[in-house]
Amino acid sequence: MIHLKSVAEIEAMKEAGRVSAKALRKTGELVRPGISTLELDRFAENLIRMEGGVPAFLGYGGFKGSICSSVNDQIVHGIPSREVILREGDIISIDTGAIIGGWVGDNAATFAVGEIAPETARLLAVTEQCMLKGVDTARTGNRLGDIGYVVQHLAESEGFGVVREYVGHGIGHDMHEDPNVPNFGRKGHGIRLKKGMVLAIEPMINLGSHKTRGPFDDRWTVYTADGAPSAHFEKTVAITEDGPLILTAE
Ligand code: MG
Asked: From edge to edge, which strands make up the β-sheet containing 204-206?
């Protein structure tokens, strides 16, 4: 069931969004060769709590981190660890979420560690563009498939693979609400988008094939099947009378 949010509820969600966005931005600023993903996690958790929030991912389904930290060929749901040390040329997707006043914010971005290969830099830029196009399509009158279509069309026209198994989602009192928001789709198909829907739009785009493998023993981390790098950008967006409103904003 899709929970439509009132104007007042969307207003209330902004605080969880603001803290999620601040945690993402400030944690991203720490990305550099030599830092561990556990250090990034501890920093983000502390920031979220200092801002009056609770990390949305910590304990979710038993997840052990406050962030998801997914390096190189890890697509999503990487677990922070003191053993994962970032190196020059890596990329890292950081996903942060905060709960404030019973509302959840969720956002992600992929960061370069020092200098990265030009092709990988292009993957990051295109994936962010895919997300922004998806956000811009979150308007009343459009359909769910229109979001997937614009994301898939741009990614595939650049020769990249669009992950199928993991998708965006509705968000509100729960981190994952209906509907699912695939990053692939057909124009004019799917449910009609309505004022009051709040969606986490999050393309996961691979430099190579769209195929995934895992999770394995850790039960969480998802990898590209071919070992090529993967990028991930996400924003929480409300559909309003005036168009899409990004809630994960400072
Ligand atoms: Mg999400």
From this structure: 161-162, 204-206, 230-232
The Å distance, Cα 76 to ligand 1 centre, comes to 10
User: What is the tally of structural domains in the chain?
Assistant: 1
The CATH number of the domain where 63 resides is what? 3.90.230.10
Using the mean position of ligand 1's atoms as its centre, give its distance from the Cα of residue 171 in Å: 8
- The domain containing residue 202 runs over which residues? 7-246
For ion ligand 1, residues whose CB falls within 5 Å: 106, 200
**pTM listed for this prediction:** 0.98
> Tens of pLDDT along 20-57?
999 999 999 999 999 999 999 999 999 999 999 999 99
Beta bridge partners of 24: none
pLDDT tens digits, 171-201: 999 999 999 999 999 999 999 999 999 999 9
**Sheet of 74-76: strands edge to edge?**
74-76, 222-224, 212-213
Q: How far is the CA of 95 from the centre of ligand 1 (A)?
A: 8
What is the whole-number distance in angstroms between the Cα of residue 169 and the centre of ligand 1? 7
